[in-house]
Automatic annotation (TrEMBL):
Compartments reported by the entry: Cell membrane; Endoplasmic reticulum membrane
GO BP term (any one): endoplasmic reticulum-plasma membrane tethering
Organism annotation: Leucopsar rothschildi
Name of the encoding gene: Esyt2_1
Molecular function via GO: calcium ion binding; calcium-dependent phospholipid binding; phosphatidylcholine binding; phosphatidylethanolamine binding; phosphatidylinositol binding
Domain SMP-LTD as annotated: residue spans: 1-166
Residue ranges constituting the C2 domain according to the UniProt record: 165-285
The name this protein goes by in its record: ESYT2 protein
Length: 356
């Protein structure tokens, strides 16, 4: 299958990722891939997990441990600056979810399949010529990770690749499903964090300027920075849509803000199945990957209701908690499907003609 998978990847790069890169920054408006060759070394599937509980009987959910290390030949250019760069090798490691749905009573038994990563995969690209490209005026403010982030985000939930296998399947509902719920994250405070700032060439250890990065799929929130405090109080609230469970997790990383490179202060990963089961969690969590530090979170699982019967009650509750979030707390979710358009005006490109 690998040669045909490569054809699909090339189509994905040209039709999805290339326009996304162009739209990410004005200086990248003439970005294009001039050659895409993924190579002959296929990806490996190191493990498969099949979910048998808490799933719809008309679907099969698989989690695949994906590992790809390949020698590629991918060339790109930005015509506006007459710049070219390339990729000579690429690595990608992560958990890809494959959903087979709906199951049907006729061949091929599966109506469609959807592919996506539950969280941002580890993606490493060995560039050639990128340093020269980033030296161009207008591009020198960009980092070499901007294209990496765009590619990663297009593969991470809620973005998904959906392939219909029969004509009558409702493809829009599979590509843009209704969220399973909303996670309200009260990012409250931390205690006993590590002091990363040092003085007198490291002899005196000081405090830290901590802040947090919160991720649910490709939804990312960043807290404010608390200056010189090992017991910071943020008291901030974020709301994230949850599209998949089991399998999705809340990821939190704490950092100490520095002028050069921010120092790591610890991380936390929480399975959203537990939050949904409890509905409300208000706990101190011990930070991982560091010697000390705790984080106080309050997590609420909010279920989506099909009618507005309880809206007044929800609004009353939100008014009582109106000081908890800068932009207010949500009471409802609007889902809009753009179906089609008709009789659009024709756009003309005017070109000057030169005659000798």
């Amino acid at each position: 299958m690998w040669p045909f998978i490569c054809q699909f990847i090339e189509k994905l790069f040209r039709e999805t990722i290339e326009p996304a890169v162009r739209g990410a920054n004005n200086h990248l408006s003439t970005f294009s891939f001039t050659k895409i060759d993924i190579g002959h070394q296929p990806l490996r599937i190191n493990g498969v997990k099949v979910y048998t509980e808490n799933v719809d009987k008309r679907q099969i959910i698989l989690d695949l441990q994906i590992s790809f290390v390949g020698n590629c030949e991918i060339d790109l250019e930005i015509k506006r600056y007459f710049c070219r760069a390339g990729v000579k090798s690429i690595q990608i490691h992560g958990t890809m979810r494959v959903i087979l749905e709906p199951l049907i009573g006729d061949m091929p038994l599966i109506g469609a399949l959807s592919l996506f990563f539950l969280r941002k995969p580890l993606l490493e690209i060995n560039w050639t010529g990128l340093t020269n490209l980033l030296d161009v005026p207008g591009l020198n403010g960009l980092s070499d990770t901007i294209i990496l982030d765009i590619i990663s985000n297009y593969l991470v939930l809620p973005n998904r690749i959906t392939v219909p296998l029969v004509s009558e399947v409702q493809i829009a509902q599979l590509r843009f499903p209704i969220p399973k719920g909303v996670l309200r994250i009260h990012f409250i405070e931390a205690q006993d964090l590590e002091g990363k700032d040092t003085y007198l060439k490291g002899i005196v250890k000081g405090k830290s300027d901590p802040y947090g990065i919160i991720r649910v799929g490709n939804q990312i929130f960043q807290s404010k920075v608390i200056k010189e405090n090992l017991n910071p109080k943020w008291n901030e609230v974020y709301e994230a849509l949850v599209y998949e469970h089991p399998g999705q997790e809340l990821e939190i990383e704490l950092f100490d803000e520095d002028p050069d490179k921010d120092d790591f202060l610890g991380s936390l990963m929480i399975d959203l199945i537990e939050v949904e089961k409890e509905r409300l969690l208000d706990e101190w969590f011990t930070l991982d990957e560091v010697s000390k530090g705790k984080l106080h979170l309050k997590l609420e699982w909010l279920t989506l209701m099909p009618t507005a019967d309880n809206l007044d009650k929800v609004l009353t509750s939100i008014r009582a908690d109106k000081d908890q979030a800068n932009d207010g707390l949500s009471s409802a979710l609007l889902i809009l499907y753009l179906d089609s358009a008709r009789n659009l005006p024709v756009s003309y490109i005017l070109m000057d003609t030169f005659c000798h």
